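If you are new to this repository, start here. Below is one unmodified record pulled from the training split, so you can see the exact layout before writing a loader.
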Amino acid sequence: MRKDSRLSRVLHVLVHLEAFDAPVTSDTMANMLNTNPVVVRRTMALLRDQGYVRSAKGHSGGWSLSKPLNEITLLDVHQALGDGSVFAIGLTDEHTSCPIEHAVNDALKDVMNEAEALMLKRFGEITLDVLAAGFK
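And here is the target side for that same chain:
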């Protein structure tokens, strides 16, 4: 099962952005994350659309924070990335007429929904400056 590490990677980049005195290019961020600059631009555009970062074109262009880290929560970033499930596990729907599948899904659904609600609540309580304080 493949993990979705976008949240972790974007948080990494946002905390780094605070440390730079000038805008950071997509190429620089792509090197930090070992990915393609196009992936960085697409992902950062989601954050720009929500007002967390800004971009500038040209020779001295790149990405920079539009808000201080203490005004951005983990929940903000999670939602900007598309608000998908925080879990890589999911319910099966291959045998929709099977009563056992229904029983398993019913049991898992409530627990997973409760755990996800708690996790998202906690995400809303943690600002990115707390992450940055961990390495300063």
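Two things worth knowing about this chain: The mean pLDDT is 87. The chain has six helices and two strands.
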